[in-house]
Predict the 3D structure of the following.
Amino acid sequence: MSEHADTADITFEVLPDDLAATPLVPDSPVAMAQSAAVFAPVLPPSPDVAVVPPESVGAWRRMGQEVVAGLQTLLSAAVYATLIVTFGFQVARVDGLSMAPTLEDHDRLIVNKLVYEIGEPRPGDIVMLYYPLNPEKMFVKRVIAREGDSVRIVDGRVYVNDVPLHDDYVPAEFRSHDDLGPQVIQQGYYFVMGDHRNNSSDSRHWGPVPKKYIVGKVKVRWWPLQNARIF
């Protein structure tokens, strides 16, 4: 095994005994080659070159992959949320008391926007709709009658196709005493009312609502939590 001896900045290699004992002829090409091999200096690594351990490179690569995966997850979640809000469900807040006591002011709701893409609104459904006189506004009302139905109101009592409406959800103090009709609902339209009959602007005032203005069905009241409910 060879040994090394260091002097200043240059490292020399000491030859094994058998090679060191071999006489060399100064002018011989072999001697010159061997001499060059013997005294060829081994220079130390340049201080300007940084040596990065392989395990550090692997750690940085894994970290980069994890960051990319995280960004992809966030992007996917954003896309899914956009699709859900745009085509599936929408979060809404109640402003006002026209649907009291079923819905109160500032209740938070989840509205199913897909249900009426594959089906029709039914009497009794609580729906979110565009205000027909100003579609920039949105209301929450209850469907009372659909196309082809006859609606009549006598002293606040609602009749659909001459049958009294079962509206036990309306307290006596919230009932109105108005009269209307009879009125036959035209094709593609729905008659809607608020549960707070004497404090609601609805189809009694601005007529039936076209289906295209009905955004979706109220499915959940999720706030306040103590009053959470599925409709």
The longest strand covers residues 214-223.
